[in-house]
What does this fold into?
Amino acid sequence: MKHYENTPMRMRAKAAPVVKTEVPLRAWCSLDKTREQALPIDDSDNGCDCQPRCPTGAGRMDLRQIAAIKMADEDAVTDSPEAYYLMKQRGITNVIILGVHANMCVLGRPFSIRQMVYQGQNVALVRDLTDTMYNPRSKPFVPHTRGTELVVEHIERHWCPTLTSTDILGGETFQFSDVKIEKDFREPSTSSANTEPRLLKN
It folds into this structure.
């Protein structure tokens, strides 16, 4: 967060008043065996499929937002439960999640799916605007994009519904170029879970 430390966006998040919660806010929300099965992909190698392997180390991910995404002064920047404090301050109860990676930060970070569901927020994932950290050399030995689909199906089954960017913006659903993907970004599910896309509005 060092890059944003003195920006209006960062100061706004830091100024949000702390809120007491019935379910304690967590710095990281790990796999919850009381409501979900193990993830359908093996990401024990951190999902890196580079040959040779990428370097790892503290601070490697402590960078900045990609320059193509423009940030406005009225935005807020945080990597902590401050996000929930901001939502409570503004009366926000419907949360749309997008970004990376679905099997890691999108599920586990303090501002993301598990935490928001625990706090009673109405949560939906934009399934064509996410990706996974998955190495196809690991189980279940499927193409990378299929690995992402499997994680999305896991989220739909155990955590929240999904939608596509076209539900908000119109136009064509984003498709990865490495494999042919069905129009709705996933194979028909045999699960009884409610996976119909639905747009949540405040």
